[in-house]
Amino acid sequence: MKLADNKATLSFSNGKPSIELPVYSGNIGPDVIDIRKLYSQTGMFTYDPGFLSTAATQSAITYIDGDQGELLYRGYPIEQLAVNCDFLETCYLLLKGDLPNATEKKDFTELVTRHTMVNEQMQFFMRGFRRDAHPMAILTGLVGGMSAFYHDSTDINNPEHREISAIRLIAKLPTLVAMAYKYGIGQPYMYPQNDLSYAGNFLRMMFATPCEEYKVNPVIEKALDRIFILHADHEQNASTSTVRLCGSSGTNPFAAIAAGVACLWGPAHGGANEAALNMLYDIQKQGGVAKIGEFIKQVKDKNSNVKLMGFGHRVYKNYDPRAKLMQQTCNEVLTELGLEKDPLFALAKELEKIALEDEYFVSRKLYPNVDFYSGIVQRAIGIPVNLFTGIFALARTVGWIAQLNEMIGDPEYKIGRPRQLFTGAPRRDVPHISKR
Ligand code: SDX
């Protein structure tokens, strides 16, 4: 970051001396006012719950232009990456800062492929869960549990440990997600198969059984690979900020990523794809397209607490570019599977059309986000609704790791420790119980 030819002056109406604060510029996007010395100079904190106007870090990984609806991974537009690259190339890009050449791509793919198996003991770890446990509960446990298996890569300050734990996490998440699914349906686990692509291997671990050969459908394989690309990283979202804050204590990479899995589970965040599909199911059950008007009315009624899941975004005040690509992917998959007439897809498109013409949504700049269509395409592929966020976590793991590594690699980083505006009881003495 570079000092801008601009300064911020903070003055106070109560006569406290004003102070000057430096302004820094990045390469693109808003400048920042550096308030690191604010408390020492004024004895005051800033106040920004939800971090609506706060840059918690500088980063060179992902940039979102919310007004333009633009998403760049290391400068490359998501629309180009989704068409010209595969997920492992995107992983390489996010981790190392540039796209791999043919040799680098081959070596990286081989490295990941060689780490897709998990320790056999993990199967016994799984047995502690109920068969009907939510896969995200299982994944939070399994990912955190990885730190109990890979002691040789838990020192977050050791670059070699960061490198191998990154490969292990990227390689093993598909295996763990597929194991969580198989455990829930009582089928045997399928071991990874090294001659398959990253997405193809995941499809086989999910849907193959030991009883017969499994043939990967190339259209579904490509669609799933693209879904992984679309979910790979997204600036300082809630789960990424969780990973950074957790990692800033020096804990091991597996524990920090497990914290990200736990945060992503929430319906306001990564859990929205599961919530969006359940919302479409509910509207379908109540009468489908004919009931959209009634549902929209509920959404607009503040007392209903009903939100249009898969719509709205803290940063995008325009169409989420990932939602457009997800809708295209949806079309491809449904056509491939002969499901073009899928009633839920038709319902989602009609719901989007009506919402985008409604003043409530237009005035609040609420557009479909990545989660609006992702559930429909995952359901068509055969992925159960309660596993959608697990797929999101699988794909976002590389982004979490890249952001964590960037933080640890920043000589300026400190343990994250926000302050507060205290509104509780001032000091008082404990009364005897007879007087309470
Ligand atoms: C992800 O941060 C990221 O980058 C996340 C993510 C990533 O890749 O990591 O993009 C992934 O989490 C996508 C978002 C998935 N969540 C959902 O689809 C859940 C539904 N969306 C909302 O909960 C909401 O839009 C948020 C949480 C996504 C964003 O909320 P904000 O920025 O805090 O905005 P807000 O809640 O203050 O909303 C502003 C107004 C409010 O109305 P008013 O108080 O002004 O009258 O818009 C309304 C909100 O009530 N609003 C919605 C709405 N989203 C916002 N009203 C109905 N339906 C919605 N979906």
TrEMBL record:
The active site is at 313, 371. SUPFAM superfamilies: Citrate synthase. GO terms for biological process: tricarboxylic acid cycle. CDD domains: EcCS_like (cd06114). GO terms for cellular component: cytoplasm. InterPro entries: Citrate_synth-like_lrg_a-sub, Citrate_synth-like_sm_a-sub, Citrate_synthase, Citrate_synthase_AS, Citrate_synthase_bac-typ, Citrate_synthase_sf, Citrate_synthase_typ-I. Keywords: Acyltransferase, Transferase, Tricarboxylic acid cycle. The keyword Acyltransferase applies. The keyword Cytoplasm does not apply. Gene3D superfamilies: 2.20.28.60, Citrate Synthase, domain 1, Cytochrome P450-Terp, domain 2. Pathway: Carbohydrate metabolism; tricarboxylic acid cycle; isocitrate from oxaloacetate: step 1/2. It catalyses: oxaloacetate + acetyl-CoA + H2O = citrate + CoA + H(+). GO terms for molecular function: citrate synthase activity. It holds the Pfam family Citrate_synt. PANTHER family: CITRATE SYNTHASE (PTHR42871:SF1). Belongs to the citrate synthase family. This is Citrate synthase. The gene is gltA.
